[in-house]
TetR family transcriptional regulator (Microlunatus ginsengisoli), 466 residues
Amino acid sequence: MFGMSIQPSPARSERRRNTLSLDVVLTEAVAILDEHGERGLTFRRLTEGLGTGPGGVYWYVQDKADLINLACDRVVANALDAVPEQPGEEPMAVLRGLALAVFDELDRHPWAGPHLTSNPGQQNTLRLLDRFGRLVTEAGLPADQQFYAASAVLNYVVGVGTQMARALSRVVGDTDREDYLAAAVARWEELDEQEFAFVRRVAGTVREHDDREQFTAGLDLLLVGIGRAGGRA
Amino acid sequence: MFGMSIQPSPARSERRRNTLSLDVVLTEAVAILDEHGERGLTFRRLTEGLGTGPGGVYWYVQDKADLINLACDRVVANALDAVPEQPGEEPMAVLRGLALAVFDELDRHPWAGPHLTSNPGQQNTLRLLDRFGRLVTEAGLPADQQFYAASAVLNYVVGVGTQMARALSRVVGDTDREDYLAAAVARWEELDEQEFAFVRRVAGTVREHDDREQFTAGLDLLLVGIGRAGGRA
DNA sequence: TCCAATATAGAACGTCGTTCTAGACCGTGG
DNA sequence: CCACGGTCTAGAACGACGTTCTATATTGGA
């Protein structure tokens, strides 16, 4: 589960001319995950879509876990590519933009979230953490707080982003995510009024506003803390 | 995956005298998860330890996913029980204590973390969110920020807690988590110095300090933001 | 042209989650 | 005291899955 291949199994130095490739495999895997959800991704379906056998896939991938990790890695890569590094910009603004890029990508690929949360095993999640770290550093945060500030931001973005992505997700295919939000809110409103006083109170207001807006509003709460600890607002 | 049974499948109203029970099943499941990790929890092993067949387990549980959800729910319940509600205390102090209770429980049951992050499907995770929400409300946070403040705290606690729990976890049994931290730090120090400037810089300092201390230090960063947005420090 | 390395297909294996069926246990009403 | 229906349990059986193995095609360099 950990320490999985970051490079494909064999040395990847030279160019090859094969009809199959890691890129093709991952593209198909992502497509299946998008359409059928995580439980819908099987080697049968994958190899069928690829017109090949398991042997072909296992050449590029170590494991099913590895396959999913690499697929998640690609999702994060999309978000990183959407916000190129441009030195000199206001760090907090860049951070906000990066967070929204991740949010949008999680909206497109809701299956990825749970695998991202709290394990920077994947190269690009680590890259994301690194960019958050450099940004809070730029913002003037003291050295001993930088790592946990960056972690806090990463966990908020991925955690809350995943939650909202699921809530927003259209009903698709035979996947397991149904009318998640409706069901969730309905369940919330059936809860004991005393024991769940808070959740019941806010249940209604959660869906009234634009989700991206609320997402960044929550993020700003973190950033205020980070900004105060550093020099700026 | 969602909307799973919170009560066991049949009506649970009357007392029964059976040798098996949901409680016994979950206790065994948690024990196996602790010892062998998530992949080590199979129905064979579970029924063997229980001295029963699959039929017995399926009477109390809908699914394997349901089983794991219920096991996670119990873990969160432990944390909640460790910090009983006592009105009148300083809300931020209570919040910090609750966060540490979750941290300790995740340290004991590292498999639970990933299932908790970003899906309050389980009753007790929702209960945890509710308590965080009431605490930030007590701290004077404006109404429109309460939900996302509570979410930020929940995600930080579970996300970072899971990460650190894995890092701390002793090597046990045949589970898949090895010397996670050593491997992680070693990998971090092999990264490209330019691309991962931040991670490489902080890699060393991460393990120098006490983990619980750093965990709360990061949490305080959030709480500062929340406190400033509200009335207090 | 031949050889080793690279890359692929498909059959086969063992294990898993789950379902099905038969029956044991038990409180209750006749 | 005895059947009877609901509650609960054991084990056999099933189909699907991840994975491995073997055999073979394809290639670039000697």
Notes: Residues 10, 16, 18-20, 47, 52-56, 59 of chain A lie near DNA strand C (CB under 10 Å from a C1'). DSSP finds eleven helices and no strands in chain A. Chain A touches chain B through 64 residues (CB under 8 Å). The mean pLDDT of chain A is 81.
